[in-house]
Amino acid sequence: MKKKVLSLLLSTAMVASLAACGSAADTGSTDTGSTDTQSSDTSAQSGDAAATETADAAAEDYELTDLYITVDGTLTANVDNGQDAFVEQWEAAVSEKLGHDIKLHINQPEHSGYKDNVAQLLTTGQPGDGQYPDALIMSATMYKQYQTTGILWNMADAYDNAEFQSRITLPSINENMKTANGELYAFAPTYGNGCVTYVKQSWLDAAGLKIEDIKTFDDYYNMLKAFTKDGQTGVIAAGFGKLDEAPYINYMPEFWQGAYPAIYQKDGQWVDGFQEQATIDALNRLAQGYADGVIDKDTEEATTKVAREKWFSNDQTTSEGVFTYWAGTWLRTLTDNLDKNDVDSDLGDDRLVQLPPIQEIKDTWGGYLNREAPVWVITDDGDGNDAREQAIFDALIETMLDGDKVQTLWTYGAEDVHWSTHAESFTTNPDDPEKKKDYEYAEGEFHLKQSPNDPNAVWKKNHLDPVLVIAPLTNGFVDSDPLVTEGNKFFTENCVDAPQSPSSETLTEVEADLATDKTTYLNNVVAGKMTAEDAIADYQSKWGDTINTILEELNSAE
Amino acid sequence: MAKRVEFAAGRKKKTDAFDIVNYIVFILIGLIVLVPIWKVVVDSFNAVGVYKFQLFPNEPTLDGYRTIIHTSKLYQPFVNSVVTTILGTLLGLVMSTLGGYVLSQYDMPGRNALAYFLLFTMIFSGGMIPEYLVMKQLGLVNKMWILVVKHGMNVYNLVLMRNFFEGIPGSLFEAAKIDGCSPMGIFFRIVLPLSKAALASIGLMFAVTVWNDYSTVQIYITNRDQVNFQYILRVMVMDGDTPTTAYKVSQSTLYYSAIVCAILPFMLLYPFLQKYFVKGVNVGAVKE
Amino acid sequence: MFLPVLIYVLIVYYWPMLGVRYAFYDYTLKKIEFVGLKHFTKMFSDADFWKAFINTLELSIIKLLITTGTAVIVSVFINEMANLFAKKILQTVIYLPHFMSWTVTAAIFTLFLSTSSTGFVNETLKNWGWIKESIDFMHETALWRPVYYLVNIWKETGWGTVIFLATLSGINPELYEAADIDGATRLQKIWYVTVPELLNTIIIVLILNLAKVLNLFESVFVMYNNRVFEVSDVISTYIYRKTFMTAIPNYGYSTAVGLFKSIVGCALVLICNRASKKVRGHGII
After folding, report:
1. Which chains touch A (3 or more CB pairs under 8 A)?
2. Which residue of A has its CA nearest to B136?
3. Burial environment of residue A444 by CB neighbours within 10 A (0 to 12, 13 to 18, 19 or more)
4. Hey, are the CB atoms on A39 and B142 less than 8 Å from each other?
5. What is this model's ipTM?
6. Are A40 and B137 in contact (CB < 8 Å)?
7. Which of C10, C25, C136 sits opposite A17 (nearest CB)?
8. Tens of pLDDT along A11-59?
């Protein structure tokens, strides 16, 4: 008896499970908007077919009720920092604008693994599965990789007809991103920003140096040497070069100088900068710096977070004097972190000085590199109908630069959580007489509040940098931090635009491996295990053919 | 065992050079194992990081633990670990006792087919990617419940459980049957109460597996609020990605405190439950 | 009663098996397309894949031999200890690391071996004047494997003794008594009585673990870094990187590598099963 029952159950279950898989594979789901799990192998094809049927019906009055976005760490209003309030106020404001309720779902993976997580989401998901992003943030490099894959929506029309067009002060940013055929697959709400070299004033003083005298690479190198003693080193960065993210050389510009270790456009032709003499020279300079100990040994393994934390750590005996990092707001953030760790408290806001580009940089690039802007992209469900995508654009991007309520949310965060216009007074570091600081604001005065997760720090900004944004706020909310202003001014005076990233299918396919290999060569040369010439020769023999294919693809497309 | 004890005692008479060497070896081995653990514990209470091995902290502080308790990015994973471990262990026990019991019924027709059905999974698996895609379809990606589901079933433990059930004298079942007990009744009234020790051993094995699992989280979970404590420990110590906290605590204190938290539950249970820990392995050869 | 187990096994184990078909497909963004053996050709011509395959074998086999060896030696010492209390204590202590996760173990040793000013090993060695410059144990190609093996010894030796001690406690005391009568010394008794008795168990342990040599993942994953890929990349980490650390991954390719691993693993299990039947009369599964 038992046998029969069991074998029956077994076979039924087996058949049922196989049938279930089979049927899913045959028919797929007919409702692309549902959150039903469907066999992912067929959804891509069947999704198309099913969606075309429903497309006509949905066409004009597509009502977007749920918006799924995936964001990186630049949305600083994260779950620990008042994201709930941000979402709530966004939903209220946007629902009002659209005339129907909309819910915002934010997926914010870890910043360091963002690229990989996005790849995972996009490969294994499909629109409407409850995780697949309707829109997401991408770095310029990422965006170039996905541009040709067909999963991004061409938003050229939406962008051209956007309500915010009239307020754009920096139209070139997005115009430049359009392809030769006028397609636009991404939207940059701000310009890119870049890195400048910060030097600790106290270290300069101790070495008897003046920032004005640091004019050439030799001056710079001697400064690093003067800083290197008793466990202290000259400079740290997140990698000797960050070869997987444009503009690659921005963390150690003095060593890289005119080199560009990637494919870029030179005099109208795409070339591989990694094979150029300039790169070999740069590698040799880095190797020298590593051998002399002026480059912190942790540089190779450090992530940006590790590097900066070591740099402003409370233990300055193993720290470094120089750090090249993001301009503007970061001048304030770095200063505040040094302050938090009781480093050079007597110098106040003068702890850090910004080093103007050295002569070698001026002679080649002309200044610090202003990277390609990070962008927002909208995913295309491939149904040949733009209703869903246009609705996403209207709900997200159109409102993001409304100059008013929603833009303020993206710029400063949630009202009365991150900022306020109500009369208020608060004190940071109330228990520490030296660092104690009082803030007082009158009714109606716009100001930033204490950070939700750290009452001793004042909130800075949310996703959009008010200084970098392409269409400024019109409500007059300005947070005028002199240090941030100074930092931004310094950068805009000393920067040039970074080269454009290439977009090629072959490159996309090999990009990760290529970056890993190049990083290995770079690290080996710097650690003195290989000469720069050998490394490049090795690289050429391994990658030469592939690179040539890529260059052909790029140059013929032009 | 008794014979062995008597035998060892019998040899105790003469203490030769070997015994002295052996004591030294014992102490050395003990130190090799204990010094790292002791240093971790001491340094977790030490306000400043020191490289030296110290018997006791020279600047005692609880800041490391305080930071973990008060920083949601640190305590949330700990809570997740506790929850998933408890649920995973319960599910694992239910599955392996049910399965093990059925497989132990010699007279049950189809038993062999079932056994092969289970054993096949031990020699062949779909692999990392197909598994990932299935979990994705089940909606378990980015959910900490993946830990419960992935470890809720372990064929090896199920076999151990079966071996144990097979060791229960059949006469007990006969007697119960004569008393009119249903198979279910036998299971609940006779088998389970007799299996407390085995349940404890296998339960511990499940608990250790779920609590210690890191790779599942690494592969399946990207949201910080869903990760377990092992993951956060790895991210902190190896990737140097310390969550921002309002507390001022030295990095090494925080790291070592986190390590202690990651081993704490088992450190506390271990002395009392050691025999159960070891038993599992003796029931069925070796397991990694 | 068995139904929940059945359903569970079907979903968690058997359903993914259907997914191995992707090994013959291109599975990328919005595209699933039959490509036949393309991925296998690509895999077998990829130097990185072979490196990972060889590394897997080398790492796990050497690790297996070393940890088994140390476990045997430690077991013999424990067996020879007449003081039951000391014995009990040591057993309790050396089992401990086994219950620590790989993350914890790697975290402890990463901190101890770090080059920072609080790095236990480097600073101690410097203090003793043995070295001048800190050694970057975790990032040196030449040192990574020795460190990996040592950490494995620390973590698994104690647990490895469990089975050997069980065997030793089963040795007929008469054998030792006979040796005593022959006037054998302690060392002779160990060599001529204890070790031969252990041989069978050693072989079984090796066979059992040989079946699992390809499963190496977590212990490597938590300890390796891109600087030592050359000596540390194993198949599972290779699959992981190809899938989860690539901008536009091809799940088909990773599935193909996974399938290869499963098939070789399956063959190993069957071979070991055969061997086990020969050695001890019954299989391992």
Report:
1. B, C
2. A124
3. exposed
4. no
5. 0.89
6. yes
7. C10
8. 444 333 333 333 333 333 333 333 333 334 434 444 444 444 444 444 4
